[in-house]
Amino acid sequence: MPLPKAELHLHIEGTLEPELAFALAAGNGVELPYKDTEELRAAYLFEDLQSFLDVYYSLMAVLRTEDDFFELTDAYLARAAAQGVRHAEIFFDPQAHTSRGVPLATVIEGLARALDGGEERHGISTRLIMCFLRDESAESAMETLDAAKPYLHRIAAVGLDSAEVGNPPSKFREVYEAAAALGLRKVAHAGEEGPPAYIREALDILGVERIDHGLRCMEDPELVERLARERVALTVCPLSNVRLRVVDTLEQHPLARMMDAGLLCTVNSDDPAYFGGYVGDTFHAVHEALGLGEEKLRELARNSFVASFLEDDEERRGR
Ligand code: ADE
Ligand code: ZN
What we know:
Distance between the termini: 38 Å
Number of domains: 1
Bound molecules: adenine, zinc ion
Mean pLDDT: 97
Number of helices: 17
């Protein structure tokens, strides 16, 4: 029986397995620049975040209809359930779809139909987190927030992802203020490739509740102390960090040191179709590579529920 856990850092577009990508491409008449799934998988050798993002965005061309988004999401829920996931807070990237002419309604309705069946079909409760692409303009993020107004009942929080360096959290101050005014919760990727100062900005300027990744906080002892004191959750993604060369090897990953420093860490899969494992695989990998024993794995699983939006969401709904 896998340990029951919540997954808090998962890009739904990053669950697009090569087999499904080719099936959807055939159904939608989209030509992929790869001969077959083997050739596609062989392209998953990344140098850094940007080299991954290039493949990630280009493969999204196969996602066109509401059914495509349903199928993608339902397939993720089935895989996650098999690895002990009981609750998932799922990122999606609306701008990566609207910019290719796929309406926001198509995306959200496909995702929502799968999530609505999540409890019954897979035993997983869910939340949706709408991410802004930080390498697009703040105006584009604001337009995206505006366009999402008819779907706010479907969206728990906003997030910030894509190319981090050169796109600090402060760029999105106004859009985060507007999101908060609409009653949305806030998270942001920070300290993946970007410096510890971006983590501070995410906290102080955007007012986020959780930091996605955050591992570069380890370069700044004062920041580590603050994150530990304020119990700010970090959604750490060890397999992603190795594949995107944020760390050289899993054995060198700072997760164990982060936990020893008193940080509220969770373990997540980020983009599992690209990074070699879903969240249960990730738990197994950190056990093997970092020697995290049963007790530490239980702590990580417990943290995932503590850091989730489950706890106080119901009260907030009366807002
Ligand atoms: N989008 C999908 N995965 C991402 C990651 N690891 N960092 C930033 N943006 C992303
Ligand atoms: Zn991510």
